[in-house]
Structures are given as structure tokens and as C-alpha cells.
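testing teh design pipeline on a random one, pls ignore if ur not involved
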């Protein structure tokens, strides 16, 4: 039972029953079921289960270990307030329908009154955001403003009339006044609870509590007013508000229990709650204006108008102060330009606008050349003078509506909008360079600075502000590399440079991984060789296949260190298998060589050194070259390949049949193996042409005494067709996919350990 009580289903059931009861009561009320006495009875009785429900749910929050200790403590006090309400509703039902007393104030009234101070304390105890002292003072002021607005309303509606009401005993007078004062406390506490949470947004339980209190306060005020003007009978309309308020209390307790201990942080948005104090002030003045409309213009009219104007002026003054504060927060203290915060904000705004033809926007990233030596030689004051002069230069060049900002150190950004064409950004950059070249006089020194500028034009509507800044940064580095004191437009080619350096870094930092794809004897499926295939474990993009970077590596030459890395890693791994797994000796290792690697003068020494370093035997290694290498082999290439052969290394032609291999070259090259390209193997079962190419390659292999390996075998039919042709070895997903090192090792172990 206790366990069930803690489940979400228990509270869902509770909420559903309460909703059904409330619905029943409201329908009965509006459809005027039965006699008025019956409806009153139903209404008064409905309170009891609702109050019982919110009390029980609140107890559950107050004892739940899932809640933060401070929340738990606050909810303990809120639970006491709820108990007071429960007692009040029970007492009311008993006194109205069993004892039939109409005494005022009654036991129920006292219990109702007790609800306010406990609720007040509980709400104030709820944990808020961590705040500085000044923020707390501001919060208190805001809450007091709301409280003062509420006080004016309550004074007008109740307190004033109560003081003048005839025929009340002192106790009744005090009690009738105490109820709205208690409500005022509630308004004060709930606005504090909401205001202190306005960033991030007010949590659901507090919003529900606020709603419940708003309904309860409205009902209380109406109740006191009705008591003052003739006497309240149960079942009238304030009851509807109270009941709805009770239901919100049920929901609030339920939501609080469901709330995780550390709620997910929400987006940092300005919340409309910060308008609460302003709304309260305006409402108070509206009330005053309505109430005083019959008063003589002299002296009240002018005075009230004057007060309203004064308040509005103070509010306006405050908004100026707020703007000053904001300006201070987004301005660079030294240069008076925008700081990084504002630049980032405006950049995001710029990136969010639609791209329109004929109206371009651009980001300029400016870095002062040789700023550091000035700072080091002449001191920070000289450095500051240079930065201030640079900021002045920027102000002279940019137009209204554009933004210049300092991102930090000697780095500046300029955001340009509504440019007629791309070239306009370049001419502004050129003018900036010109202005920045002006010498800076510092004491008796004449300081000369220059700048480099990267220009990124916004062409891609999907590019984020951050991307634009990165592009400008890439262009800035290009400008620096090209000799400084100049500007460069960003282009994709530069991106290639960026990606290249990223790739080189990946090789240096061991972000690459070698996978191994087994090649098997087609007839038996026995493991014969493994081919090393590189992967890039990219820190952001995840595991990348060679298709995503080999071409770039090829173009930029990064494939040379990359290839050496792969060869070393593969040989080291395979050498480990040889020593660790008895019987693994005959297993061959194939590694791909790029045409760029083959063209390197030191290819042979590199390969030799790696073999020596890793202890992998040369006669177990196959190097795969592509047809483009053998298409027009120059004598040097041939001699290098021959030197590899002399070491005992086998040479294979990869993807055979896809290029323009001429048979004459095949004869002249020291090649020992042909790998039939996957494109022919794929069509072998149903495309006669593909089938005849495969047959031709197998026969060619026989004629030249070369091994033939079929690549990319995906089905049993393909394997059978290849066996029928006399092809001995094959490789493909039908047998094995490329495997990560540990799985490859396990496979080798399984195959060879069984043989010994
Ligand atoms: P490749 O040397 O011809 O390698 C065979 C490629 O075919 C591998 O793709 C392999 O995963 C894939 N493959 C194997 N069997 C099947 C199959 O049954 N079906 C299909 N659809 N694909 C199959 P991967 O690993 O993406 O490598 C692609 C190419 O990248 C390689 O073609 C090779 O040219 C190049 N490459 C890979 N690693 C290196 C390296 O370390 N150095 C150099 N220079 N190039 C490499
Ligand atoms: Mg290959
Ligand atoms: Mg291939």
C-alpha cells in the first residue's frame, strides 16, 4: 500500500477522482440539480475529499527523499497550511449541515485564517535561485511593489468599508479585516516565489500554487465583501473559485512530487514575470482613477494625475538605468566598442535573417599584426593606446547600423549589413587596412601597426553565427600566411586547408584506427589474409570511413604520413598475432598504398624501417597499389617497386579492371597479385559482360602467374560463380566485414589456434 502510494499511478488516480468530483459539482451547480439546499450540501461536501487529496499528496512531497531538503522543509510548512484548510472544510460542513449554526466568525473561519500565515511561510521557504545580496534587495522591492498594489485594491474593496461598517462587534471587525490581510500576505509570498524564479522559468508547481492562491484570494475577498453586505450562504459563486483553487492545490502537490530533484535547465529567456511589479503599479493607478472620478478636480484631480505621472516618470527613469546597465555589460571597457557578448548576439541575429539577393552581409575578423612586440617593448599603456587607435579607425570606416566589436586581446570583428555586392565588403576591408596603418603617437614613440583581415560573406542561409566567425577566422589565417597586412575572402578551398590540418593532427594524435577485412579461401572459407583498412575516430563526427577523407588526404599529400601510420599500426598488430597465436605464421597482411606514397623517393626505406621496427616479416606483407600507378610507370617507380619485391614483399593491383591497365605495363611491373574490382563481382551472376571480365582476369592471372583475389563478394551465388571460374581467394561482406582489431584478433585466434 505504502509503495503504491509512492507511485505516479496513485497520484494520477487521486487527481482523476478530484477532477471527476469537481466536474460533478460544477455541472450540478450550473444545471441547477435538485433544491438549493442539496446543491449547497454537494458543494460543501466536495471540499472535503479535495482537501484530503491535496493534504495527502503534500505529505508525500514533505517526506519524499527525492526532493531537495529545502523543498521538503518548505512543503512541510505548506502541509500544515493544507491541514488547516482540511480542518476548515470539515468544520464548515459539520456546522452548516449537522449543527446548523451561523455564528461568525466560526471554527471554520479561524481555520481558514490560519491557512494564510503557514502558506506565507511555506512559500517563502521554497528554494529560489542563488542570488547576490543586491538581487535579493531588488527582489524584495519588486515583491513589495506588488504587495502595495494589492493593498490598495484590498483597502478599496474591504479594509476601508470594514472600518466604517455599522453593527459589527470588535471581534467580527478584526476578523473580517484579518482575512484580507492574510490574503495580502499570500499575494506577497507568491509573487516573491515567482519573481525569484524568473530565470529560468517559473516551475510548474509554483505556477499552480500561484493560480490556486489567485483564485482563493479572489474568493476570500468576495466572501468578506458578501459577509459585509448581508451575509454569506454556502453554495454561492465564491465557492466555485475556492473549489477550483483546491483542485489546483491538488495538481501543485502532484507536480511537485513528480518533479525531478535536478530539473533540466531551460533556455535562458526573459520571463514575463519581471513585468509583475509594473502591472501592479498600473492596476493600482487605474483603480485610483476609477474610484476618484467623482472627486473634485481641485485639489484631487491634479494631485492624483501628478502622482501617476511621477510614477510613470520614475518607471521611465528606471528603464533608462536598465539600459545603461545593459550598455555597460555589452561594451568593451577600453575601446568603447561592443564586446564579445554583443558581437555574438548580433552575429546570431544576422545569421537568423533571410538571405536576399542584392543585399549581402559579411563578417570581418581583424587581427593586429605585431601587436605583441609593441606591448612587450613599450608596455601595456602603449598597447592600450594602439587598441584605442584601432577602435577609432574602425569607427571612422563603418556606417551606422554596422557593428564593430573587440573580441579580446588584439582581435576585432566588424559586422556589415545591407551591402550591395560581395566586393563592397572587400573595399571596406581595404579602407580599414588603410586607416589601421596610420601611425600611433605614444609619448615620444611613433608606433606602427598593421592588420590582417579575414572576410566571410554570408551566402549560406543555414550557416550559424559561429560558422561565419569560423570562416572569417580561416580567411584571417590565410591572410596572415599570405604575408600579413592584407585581407582575404573566405572560400571552400581554405576549408580544405583547415580539414587538411585537422587530418594531419588526427594522424599525429592517434585518432586513426585500423580495421582488418579477412580474405578467405573461396572453397573452404579458411582465413588466408587480412587487409588493413583505415578509419578515423573523429572526436566530433564519430567513426569515419576512408571515403570521407582519403581523397582529401590524397589531394593534399597528407596521405603520405597517414599511409605510413597505417602500415606501422597494421604491421604492429599483425606481428602481435604472430607471436601471440601459434599457427598464425602463414597469415598474410595486405596494406593499401596511395599513388602519392608510391611516388615518394624514400618509400622503400620507410617500409623497411617499419618492418624492422615492428618485426613483421616482409614475405608475409602484400602492398596494394592502384591501376593509376601502373598506367604510366616511370623508371624510378619501377625500380622502387622492384626494390620492395626484392625485400620479399608481394605487390597487388587493387580494383583491377576499373582503370586503363595495359597488358604491356602489367608485364613490365613486378606485380604478383590482381584484385578483381567489386563492380565486376557484383554483376557476376546476371551481367554477362561483368562475368566475362572476371573470367578474363582469372585467365590473365593464370597466364602471368599471378594470384587473383575477388573483392566485394556479397552473396553465395557470387562465390560459387567465382569458384567455378577457378578463382581461389575472395574477400567480401558474405564472408567477413572489416573488423576492429580486437575482433580480428579473436577471429585469427579461432582459426589458427584450432589448427595447432
Ligand atoms: P579497397 O582497398 O578496394 O578496399 C575494399 C573496400 O571495399 C573497403 O572499403 C571494404 O570495406 C569494401 N568492401 C569489402 N567487401 C565488401 C562487400 O562485400 N560489399 C561492399 N559494398 N563493400 C565491400 P573501405 O574500408 O571503405 O575502403 C575504401 C577504400 O579506401 C579502399 O578500397 C582503399 O582504396 C582506400 N583505403 C582504405 N584504407 C586505406 C589506407 O590505409 N591507405 C590508402 N591509401 N587507402 C586506403
Ligand atoms: Mg585494397
Ligand atoms: Mg579494391
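output:
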Amino acid at each position: 500500500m505504502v509503495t503504491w502510494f509512492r507511485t505516479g499511478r496513485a497520484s494520477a488516480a487521486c487527481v482523476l477522482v478530484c477532477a471527476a468530483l469537481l466536474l460533478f459539482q460544477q455541472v450540478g451547480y450550473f444545471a441547477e440539480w435538485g433544491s438549493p439546499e442539496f446543491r449547497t450540501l454537494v458543494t460543501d461536501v466536495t471540499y472535503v475529499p479535495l482537501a484530503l487529496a491535496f493534504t495527502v499528496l503534500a505529505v508525500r512531497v514533505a517526506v519524499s527523499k527525492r526532493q531537495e531538503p529545502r523543498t521538503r522543509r518548505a512543503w512541510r510548512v505548506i502541509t500544515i497550511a493544507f491541514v488547516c484548510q482540511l480542518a476548515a472544510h470539515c468544520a464548515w460542513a459539520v456546522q452548516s449541515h449537522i449543527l446548523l449554526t451561523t455564528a461568525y466568525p466560526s471554527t471554520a473561519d479561524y481555520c481558514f485564517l490560519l491557512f494564510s500565515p503557514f502558506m506565507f511561510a511555506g512559500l517563502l521557504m521554497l528554494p529560489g535561485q542563488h542570488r547576490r545580496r543586491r538581487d535579493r534587495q531588488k527582489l524584495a522591492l519588486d515583491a513589495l511593489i506588488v504587495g502595495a498594489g494589492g493593498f490598495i485594491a484590498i483597502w478599496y474593496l474591504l479594509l476601508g468599508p470594514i472600518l466604517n461598517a455599522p453593527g459589527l462587534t470588535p471581534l467580527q471587525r478584526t476578523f473580517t479585516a484579518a482575512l484580507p490581510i492574510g490574503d495580502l500576505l499570500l499575494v506577497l509570498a507568491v509573487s516573491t516565489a515567482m519573481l525569484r524564479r524568473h530565470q529560468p522559468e517559473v516551475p510548474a508547481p509554483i505556477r499552480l500554487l500561484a493560480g490556486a492562491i489567485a483564485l482563493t484570494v479572489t474568493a476570500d475577498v468576495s466572501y468578506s465583501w458578501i459577509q459585509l453586505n448581508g451575509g454569506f450562504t454556502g453554495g454561492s459563486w465564491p465557492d466555485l473559485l475556492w473549489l477550483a483553487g483546491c483542485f489546483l492545490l491538488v495538481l501543485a502537490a502532484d507536480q511537485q512530487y513528480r518533479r525531478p530533484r535536478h530539473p533540466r535547465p531551460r533556455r535562458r529567456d526573459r520571463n514575463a514575470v519581471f513585468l509583475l511589479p509594473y502591472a501592479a503599479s498600473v492596476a493600482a493607478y487605474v483603480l485610483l482613477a476609477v474610484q476618484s472620478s467623482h472627486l473634485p478636480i481641485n485639489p484631487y484631480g491634479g494631485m492624483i494625475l501628478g502622482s501617476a505621472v511621477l510614477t510613470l516618470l520614475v518607471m521611465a527613469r528606471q528603464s533608462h538605468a536598465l539600459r545603461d546597465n545593459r550598455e555597460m555589460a555589452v561594451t568593451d571597457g577600453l575601446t568603447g566598442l561592443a564586446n564579445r557578448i554583443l558581437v555574438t548576439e548580433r552575429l546570431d541575429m544576422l545569421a537568423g535573417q533571410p538571405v536576399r539577393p542584392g543585399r549581402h552581409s559579411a563578417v570581418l575578423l581583424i587581427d593586429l599584426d605585431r601587436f605583441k612586440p609593441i606591448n612587450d617593448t613599450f608596455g601595456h599603456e602603449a598597447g592600450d593606446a594602439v587598441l584605442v587607435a584601432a577602435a577609432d579607425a574602425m569607427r571612422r570606416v563603418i556606417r551606422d547600423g554596422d557593428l564593430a566589436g573587440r573580441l579580446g586581446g588584439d582581435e576585432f570583428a566588424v559586422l556589415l549589413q545591407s551591402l550591395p555586392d560581395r566586393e563592397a565588403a572587400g573595399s571596406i576591408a581595404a579602407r580599414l587596412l588603410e586607416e589601421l596603418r596610420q601611425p600611433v603617437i605614444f609619448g615620444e614613440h611613433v608606433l606602427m601597426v598593421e592588420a590582417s583581415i579575414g572576410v566571410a560573406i554570408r551566402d549560406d542561409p543555414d550557416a550559424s553565427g559561429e560558422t561565419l566567425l569560423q570562416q572569417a577566422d580561416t580567411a584571417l589565417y590565410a591572410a596572415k600566411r599570405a604575408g600579413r597586412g592584407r585581407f582575404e575572402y573566405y572560400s571552400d578551398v581554405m576549408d580544405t586547408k583547415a580539414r587538411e590540418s585537422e587530418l594531419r593532427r588526427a594522424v599525429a594524435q592517434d585518432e586513426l584506427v585500423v580495421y582488418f577485412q579477412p580474405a578467405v579461401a573461396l572453397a573452404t572459407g579458411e582465413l588466408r589474409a587480412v587487409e588493413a583498412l583505415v578509419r578515423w575516430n573523429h572526436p566530433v563526427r564519430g567513426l569515419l570511413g576512408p571515403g570521407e577523407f582519403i581523397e582529401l588526404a590524397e589531394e593534399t599529400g597528407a596521405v603520405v604520413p597517414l599511409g605510413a601510420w597505417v602500415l606501422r599500426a597494421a604491421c604492429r598488430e599483425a606481428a602481435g598475432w604472430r607471436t601471440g597465436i601459434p599457427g598464425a605464421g602463414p597469415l598474410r597482411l595486405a596494406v593499401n598504398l596511395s599513388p602519392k606514397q608510391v611516388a615518394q623517393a624514400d618509400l622503400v626505406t620507410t617500409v623497411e624501417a617499419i618492418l624492422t621496427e615492428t618485426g613483421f616479416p616482409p614475405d608475409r606483407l602484400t602492398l596494394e597499389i592502384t591501376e593509376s600507378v601502373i598506367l604510366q610507370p616511370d623508371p624510378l617507380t619501377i625500380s622502387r617497386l622492384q626494390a620492395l619485391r626484392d625485400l620479399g614483399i608481394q605487390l597487388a593491383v587493387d580494383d583491377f579492371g576499373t582503370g586503363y591497365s595495359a597488358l604491356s605495363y602489367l608485364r613490365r611491373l613486378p606485380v604478383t597479385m590482381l584484385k578483381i574490382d567489386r563492380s565486376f563481382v557484383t554483376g557476376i551472376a546476371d551481367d554477362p559482360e561483368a562475368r566475362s571480365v572476371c573470367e578474363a582476369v582469372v585467365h590473365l592471372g593464370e597466364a602471368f602467374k599471378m594470384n587473383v583475389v575477388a573483392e566485394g563478394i556479397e552473396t553465395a551465388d557470387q562465390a560459387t560463380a567465382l569458384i567455378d571460374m577457378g578463382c581461389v581467394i575472395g574477400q567480401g561482406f558474405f564472408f567477413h566485414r572489416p573488423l576492429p582489431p580486437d575482433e580480428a584478433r579473436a577471429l585469427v585466434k579461432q582459426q589458427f589456434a584450432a589448427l595447432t
